[in-house]
Amino acid sequence: MPRRTKLAPRKTPTQERSRATVDALVQATADLLVRDGYEKLTTNRVAERAGVNIASLYQFFPGKEALVAEVRRRHVEAQQVAMREAMTELRGQGLEATVRALVSMGVAAHAVNPKLHHALTEELPARVSRVGQPEEDPVLAEARKVFERLSVGVEDMERALWMVDTVAHAVIHRGVIERPGDLASGALTEELVTLLLRYLRRR
Amino acid sequence: MPRRTKLAPRKTPTQERSRATVDALVQATADLLVRDGYEKLTTNRVAERAGVNIASLYQFFPGKEALVAEVRRRHVEAQQVAMREAMTELRGQGLEATVRALVSMGVAAHAVNPKLHHALTEELPARVSRVGQPEEDPVLAEARKVFERLSVGVEDMERALWMVDTVAHAVIHRGVIERPGDLASGALTEELVTLLLRYLRRR
Amino acid sequence: MPRRTKLAPRKTPTQERSRATVDALVQATADLLVRDGYEKLTTNRVAERAGVNIASLYQFFPGKEALVAEVRRRHVEAQQVAMREAMTELRGQGLEATVRALVSMGVAAHAVNPKLHHALTEELPARVSRVGQPEEDPVLAEARKVFERLSVGVEDMERALWMVDTVAHAVIHRGVIERPGDLASGALTEELVTLLLRYLRRR
Amino acid sequence: MPRRTKLAPRKTPTQERSRATVDALVQATADLLVRDGYEKLTTNRVAERAGVNIASLYQFFPGKEALVAEVRRRHVEAQQVAMREAMTELRGQGLEATVRALVSMGVAAHAVNPKLHHALTEELPARVSRVGQPEEDPVLAEARKVFERLSVGVEDMERALWMVDTVAHAVIHRGVIERPGDLASGALTEELVTLLLRYLRRR
DNA sequence: CATGAATGAGTTTTCATTCAT
DNA sequence: CATGAATGAAAACTCATTCAT
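^ inputs. structure came back:
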């Protein structure tokens, strides 16, 4: 394992002023990421845009990957907050309600900050993007339980879960960009729910 | 629309010698892309690896984006060749055979050069990747005809096509990386075909 | 109007250390300009001669034009200082004394740093040279007042001023290079004064 | 004396085709000089614009200075042709007619190809510009004779000639750029003639 | 002769990162 | 801690010039 240190922030700012500095840096990173993409993201530009001295940047972050990692961490956090509501509905429901809830959660997650989301998923090189979030998706874990309880007629549960995850993500993700109207109207969601239910309801 | 010129090659090589040079450059680009990702791709490295003077590189390509564009062009070309066989099965078949053929084509396309495919789809920033291939997928066009002929019970044909496209791509794409075993055994394909058929067969 | 930004310095140095750096850069630019001409002036050479890292150069100047512009700015400043003395004589004098003073001022200006002056006026492409000093010559403004007060017998005052300006500049300018002896002895100055007086004294 | 060869053309083209090539190169050089200035003049660009292979360029010219020298040679030639008419009037006239003729010749020379003239005199670095035309101006030689015959009341004939030359050139040269209206109307010429006559007519 | 190709040697410019105060 | 300054290293791109066919 090489310097994974590259990804973690350096100092956790405790004082008031420092936190403002860090926030400015993270915000600037997000802005530049959205506007110009990862390629043109440089530590100098981030510092300049944040109105922070470049040396200060290095006081808190070991490099630009760490900045991006922090941006993603905060974004994921925000997404999880957004999902938490729909999450509750997940318990003790029937299959349709469950699937509907799962899809809603996905949509909610994508609605948090679509542009940043796009930048984080599409502009980032996979190497940068993938690192640091290998944990099992809590939503998937929850879904597994529900599906098992409902004894969905599926051969390989893991595979089915993977399919659902893959399909739902893809439809929502591409939908945000290519069919925003259908997403907003709920038509796309409906289509997705139909697809998933037909897939899961087997004899 | 800024200078799209950045993407087109500069000179088209006419002599034998220069064609070799260009090929070496394109090959080197592909190699480096696979090995180190787009981020670390530099014109200097490409030239060096190709054993070509940097100035020669610029004689034929205006920059690294053009190199990558050419790599992608060739890759897509190879994919289309690979798909052409399965393409023939598409005509005059029933729904299941059609869907099965479509999936096979997708798999075949992904089998051409998986590592390069991965690099081109995952490592490339969307800005770079998306540009220059806005043409309608010929496969989709074909699929539309078949579906219409079979009068698939679907409300909005375009949407359904989009769904099929999105879902199939996602499953195959992620499958290549995350479930290569299932793909090789045909299990994943079968699962995908099932899913698509259930989605398309409505009353 | 393209990025005129290319001409203005980037950062204004605040600390002692950086002021020295900037001075070294400007001085090196002037030296190289005099020695090798504008053509052979490169940012690398400037940085090297100044004993400054090339990146530091770009921290303060956006390119070589800005360096040259700064050199010129300082040179003009020095010239104006040199002219200020003779300037005082300009007030409340008769025509001859006035013309003599004007000529003296021109000579004084050209005496500041003849080699640099030559480099700036002869070696620089007009595009580079002309830009950024379109302001009305304060000397001319002064001369106009004097001429008007003396009610010089001239049809078109503006044209006459332009003539005087043009003629005086040319004689002094070419004189510095081609007839330095005559200039030093005062003979050329005398000739010029004679010429101007005869031109201005009409009935 | 270093490789003055740098300035002379290499081969004098005898065949039809070659002359066309050379002409295209010279013309392209002139065009680029006018449009983009000496700085951006490169052999590659000249060849490209002329529609001539770069290697062919080097068959006829040893470098870009030689190209420019040839452009200037042709321009001067054209100017001399243009001056030849007015030249004839120079013989056996009185002072005023002579001066008037001299000025006319200067104006005629500047009228040949003003833009190219400007490029050649203002954009070219002195080092490049000055080389290769050190010969005594035939016009000046002629003027000397006339002045001597008319026994103009001047102390130092050489100096006076130099003054006339300098002043006339400057007024016309700057006039072309800054007062084209006055030049076209003849007002500027008149002013210049007046100035010169008053200078030359002394007791 | 003409042409496509090739290239050594730059030139411009930027980046990530460190240092002294 | 913060900040202005500094810099090694390299990336992007160009130029004059030559060579093989």
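The domain at 4-65 of chain A is CATH 1.10.10.60 (Arc Repressor Mutant, subunit A). Residues 64-89 of chain A form the longest helix (26 residues).
thumbs up if we can close this ticket
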